[in-house]
Each structure stands twice: as structure tokens, then as C-alpha cells.
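Workshop exercise sheet. Pairs work together: one partner reads the sequence aloud, the other fills in the structure field after running the prediction. Swap roles for the next sheet.
Pair: D.N. / O.F.
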Amino acid sequence: MTIAESVKILRTVQQVRQWRLQRLLNGKTVGFIPTMGALHDGHCSLVSQSLKDNDETVVSIFVNPSQFAPHEDLDSYPRTIDSDLSILASKFRSSVKQVDAIFIPKISEMYPSGINLEISKQRGAFVFVKGSSEQLEGVTRPQFFRGVATIVTKLLNVVQPTNIYFGQKDAQQCIVIKNLVKDLLIDTNVRVMPTLRESNGLAMSSRNQYLSPQIKQESSIIYNALKSGESLYYSKNAKVESSEILTQIKTVLNLNPNFKIEYVSINHPETLDEIDYIEPGVGALISLAVLAPKENSDGHARLIDNIILH
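Structure field:
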């Protein structure tokens, strides 16, 4: 049995709304996992959690153009819809519960006014969460969180889930979405699940597909660097200067010239304000982005990761 035969595939906003209305009338809770496809075990862990928490679960697959700048990798971003559907069918075939619906819209469904990658040429409604979108990822990708906040708002309006699930790997995104849901009074619980990692510690990501097996293995240095900063902090058992932790992490990353540091930052775990000291009981979010060489290409894959200190 294919997934098309066992799971409802929804293509339009109206189909999703009809599906959701029936669950609402029946008093069913709904879990929602928004994705851009290229599914991996990290996504599947979010699906598994939703299956545990909710009566029914819906997954969306949509490569969102508004979070890409004109020079970024929208055209080359992995689009693997057949294997995505196969993963969702096979991964949970033996489960007591399975995914109930998959929403696969066209761009015209999600952007009825059309969408241009250049902000100056865009028309229609967009959402920007001030205070948590401008720093970290927002420095090098200034329109990224505007696009994320916009598409998540649209999807929440359509699906109206009881719970929506994200991975801790995208730490800043999680904070943006939490603020979005709070400030726009959206009746949904934002659930943040731990980062799933490869056996060498590399955070699972759709962009890992860009890496050669050798570079993928060498990418263990990213998590090792974060862990070295974590170990230094906990060894002090006291307030520590952020600069000391940053130096430690950068020293480890610089051991491999294949990886170019874009940023390493230490921020307050809730406000994302930069902090000069890490205090026990307050903690910090340590996040980074590095550029790794793509397989069979002159370009680079941009890899992000983070760790939370307490």
C-alpha cells in the first residue's frame, strides 16, 4: 500500500480547512509538523512526538520561497517529494498510529498575491517578529525570519493545530515562532523537541545532503566545538566571560580549514540579547553557523547548530 492509499493528501487550503473542521466537530486534537521536505530522522522524531501527543497528525511539505533571498539556494534546495512520502509511509507503518494527512500546496495556494524574492517587488501581507529576528541568523539572512514568520502564520491559520512541533536545532526560529504565537494570540502550543544528531554528532539537516561523505564525517567538529565550550563553562561552576567560551569554540573550529566560521554567538536563552557573562541559573544559547564545501561544487553548504547552557 502506498502512502497515497493510506494517508489523505491535501493540496488546497480549502481541503485542509474541511479536514480540520471535521476534527474540530469530533473534538479531536491535531498535531502539526511544518516542513520543507527532504525529510530525515529529525523530522520523523517530531512526527513521532505528535503521534504520542495528539489524536491526529498532519505534516506539510512546502519549500517556502519568501525565506530565501535572490542570491540564496531556493532553486537548488532539495525537493524529494516521492522519497518524503515513502519515508512517512514506511517509518510509521508498524506504529499504532500513523500520519493522518499531508498538506502539499502549490506556491499559488500559499501566496495568492504572488511572491517575488526581492522584497521591494513583493505585494501582499507579510509578518515580521521584531526583537528576535534581526540578530544571529538575521544578520546574514535579513529576510529569512520574515519569510518564516509569514509562512508559519499562514499555515497556522489554515491548519489551526492544537500543537505545532519544531526542532531545537533551529533555536532562533523556535524563539521567533513562540513570540509570533504569543503576540498574535494564536491558540496553538509550540512544542520544541531536542536536536537529533548523526552518529558523529552532526545535527540532522536537509542541507547535509550537500556534503560529501568525507566532509560530513569531518563536520563532527561543529558539535565537538560546542561541547568544548560547554565543558569549559561547567568546569568553572561560576559566572564565566562569554569571550572565554567563544575563544574556546573558535579554536576548535579553526583546527579544520574546510570549515569557515560565519559566526559564533552567545545570547540570552529567551531574549536573544548578546551577553558578556554566562551566569549559572540564567544560562545562555550558544549558536553558530559555518560554511562547509559542497560535494562536486565550488559552493558552500551553510550549517547551523547550537547548545543551551543552564
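Discussion prompt: The two ends are 47 Å apart (CA to CA). What would you look at next?
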